[in-house]
Amino acid sequence: MQNHNMNNSAKGRGNQNESNNNHVHTDVNESSSSTNAAPVFRPHTGGDSRWEAINSTISRDREIGLSHFKLLKRLGYGDIGSVYLVELKGTNTFFAMKVMDKASLASRNKLLRAQTEREILVLLDHPFLPTLYSYFETEKFYCLVMEFCSGGNLHTLRQKQPNKHFTEEATRFFASQILLALEYLHMLGIVYRDLKPENVLVRDEGHIMLSDFDLSLRCSVNPTLVKSSSAHGSNTMASNTTNNHGHNTSGTTEDDNVVHTNTNQTSNFFPRILPSKKNRKTKSDFGVLVGGPLPELMAEPTNVRSMSFVGTHEYLAPEIIRGEGHGSAVDWWTFGIFLYELLHGTTPFKGQGNRATLFNVVGQPLRFPESPQVSNVARDLIKGLLVKEPHKRIAYRRGATEIKQHPFFEGVNWALVRSAVPPHVPEPVDFSQFASKESGTGPNSSEKKVSGNKKTSSTDPSYADFEYF
């Protein structure tokens, strides 16, 4: 079923590591010199002490690099890098740092994936997505400095629940925040493509953060507001995939890079809500003051197409497995699998092995177990998301707006999701436990420590071989 010359990035489950697969991504030009940068301040992180620590260091030393950080613990590793808990020296401020080995990326044709992740992180400013506090490179490494989430990931948290599944109330809490994150990404023209509990991190206060963007697809999109009365019609679609000049930039391609856009084209990334003052509509034009429904944000990049074979086996959408080309609808399929797993403790199409799983995704109907019992509205939403034909899938046209209006999310105050009480708040981390550990103090000690911890899929037996067809 699967074309063998496709770009293959499918992952296994359980250890959060990716298999060592062949990729057709080409190398990108890069400077061999050490560089560093601190991204611009993000409004939603106002008053964040981590920004103060980063900016203070840059003000003092005029730069920031690996030598400014003390590596405390390796939190995990994947196909393109390792993640460390680090302390910015002299500040008592802690971060998660993703370190990627340049030579390893280049030898496996994965430089473009690292570049894509960095470019996406620079764009993000959302409460349920990562904040990139700094990025820099040395002669050997690319480094991304992000928020440390003390609660681990949802996969680990789910396994600690009674019967290894969440209640419907807890699932609704996590799913509502993921939904807002996906809506925001689609508004930026980003198809995430790798939703799974392992990639959903739990912050100190119990809210979530979606992580890992190296498999994401970028395109341009024009989100707009439309009248609710016409939002269901295909002729009102406002998120056509176009560039600044109005030309269609979509189309089937075997290389994701074809539909990438320049990150400086910021006009593509903001909703066209307010026209010029001369032509500006009043609130009553949208029905706000006359008892009509509120306008809807249409931000779905429906026309983008990719031929890449990427994702996690149990979460892969049928159109990816069949090699038909895929777009933003794959995120709504994975959202359905995500809901199913949180509620049932397993994914719906899991087979004895990867091959069996892929066959089940394409050929087997969706079934619900007798236990645990879930509500009819939860099943209805999952059924609507796990439709094998993407154009018939819920949210295919209207995106997150359609899912928000589903009865499963009845009662959710979308404007105040950040104020909702989390079902689980992690225990505070005692960072003093790392103070007594020996650490090098020389200028190259951090780089030596990173080099000593390198582990790749070719040497680590915990990586599972990927078999596809």
UniProtKB/TrEMBL annotation:
Residues 239-252 have a biased composition (Low complexity). SUPFAM superfamilies: Protein kinase-like (PK-like). Its EC number is 2.7.11.1. Pfam families: Pkinase. Keywords: ATP-binding, Kinase, Nucleotide-binding, Serine/threonine-protein kinase, Transferase. Residues 1-37, 433-445 have a biased composition (Polar residues). Residues 1-48, 230-257, 430-469 are annotated as: Disordered. InterPro entries: Kinase-like_dom_sf, Prot_kinase_dom, Ser/Thr_kinase_AS. GO terms for molecular function: ATP binding; protein serine/threonine kinase activity. The keyword ATP-binding applies. CDD domains: STKc_phototropin_like. SMART domains: S_TKc. It catalyses: L-threonyl-[protein] + ATP = O-phospho-L-threonyl-[protein] + ADP + H(+); L-seryl-[protein] + ATP = O-phospho-L-seryl-[protein] + ADP + H(+). Residues 69-409 form the Protein kinase domain. Gene3D superfamilies: Phosphorylase Kinase, domain 1, Transferase(Phosphotransferase) domain 1. It is an enzyme of class 2 (transferase). Belongs to the protein kinase superfamily. AGC Ser/Thr protein kinase family. This is non-specific serine/threonine protein kinase.
